[in-house]
Predict the structure.
Amino acid sequence: MMWQSGAEFWSMGGYGLYVWGSFGVTALGVILEVWLLRRGQRSLVNRLQRMQRWEAQ
């Protein structure tokens, strides 16, 4: 597809809100998933470290 201006590119033939909204929601979902996975990993590592210290006592 050829666009004559940046505004035409962003409007995507009238579907810009849907297209860019979809990209935004998808990016937000990916960022949220990565954040939740890292938080869960930290929580698990902390719990395992506490268990090791408890067993060492």
